[in-house]
Amino acid sequence: MIEILNPTLLERARVTGALVADILHTLKARSAVGVNLLDIDRWAKEMIAEAGADSCYVDYAPSFGRGPFGHYICTAVNDAVLHGRPRDYALADGDLLTLDLAVAKGGVAADSAISFIVGETRPPESVALIEATERALAAGIAAARPGARVGDLSHAIGTVLGEAGYQVNTEFGGHGIGSTMHQDPHVPNSGRPGRGYPLRPGLLLALEPWVMADTARLVTDADGWTLRSATGCRTAHSEHTIAITQDGAEILTLPTGVLL
């Protein structure tokens, strides 16, 4: 299913997107050395409830997971990159943490992810991974406009990741979003320009470049959800929900700071 949002729903999407961003950046500010991943999940649950919103994750049970997910946010540490199921783990100095959050409010969902380093130690490899995904995300957004095709966005993202020296896995990538979290079209993190679904005003997309330092192969953790690098190398993931407008792309998941 591919949804095209009318102006009323687009305004609701802006509200949901800002909420997702504010929760994520509040959690980032709280993610200090010694903080437990289960505390982050609890804080996310509390903020979602206080906003009168709904988690897109807690009852999420797709075919590839051992569902339902049962938590309110994805917390991926170091070699984990996607669908990180919160667990009893205290963050350590230098950990690379990815927080991925999807929330629905007013009948519209938004999805975003941030990767950052906990504490004072900043391993150069981790910094490079994060910066590469952020540059790739910016390139994908810059390519998004009416008349462009999904392949144009995929090509822009994949070019940045490839030039940074990373292999690209296309099993999981970006996606359409609207009344539900995951919709068509699929937006791989590598592709050929001029191919795929043509973008139209009112279309919402969640773009999410992610990479692993020295492999493109994933393995599934014993929890049935968390996806890790096959070699144990570090990983990073950046994501925004955008709306296609007459003029290009509007980023919906930017923080306002109201929860900080």
Automatic annotation (TrEMBL):
Keywords: Aminopeptidase, Hydrolase, Metal-binding, Protease
Top enzyme category: hydrolase
Gene Ontology BP, a term: proteolysis
Superkingdom assignment: Bacteria
GO molecular function per UniProt: initiator methionyl aminopeptidase activity; metal ion binding; metalloaminopeptidase activity
Pfam families for this protein: Peptidase_M24
Binding site for a divalent metal cation 2: 111, 175, 208, 239
Domain Peptidase M24: 14-245
Binding site for a divalent metal cation 1: 100, 111, 239
Cofactor: Co(2+); Zn(2+); Mn(2+); Fe(2+)
Subunit-structure text: Monomer.
Biological function: Removes the N-terminal methionine from nascent proteins. The N-terminal methionine is often cleaved when the second residue in the primary sequence is small and uncharged (Met-Ala-, Cys, Gly, Pro, Ser, Thr, or Val). Requires deformylation of the N(alpha)-formylated initiator methionine before it can be hydrolyzed.
Protein name: Methionine aminopeptidase
Organism in which the protein naturally occurs: Streptomyces fumanus
Gene: map
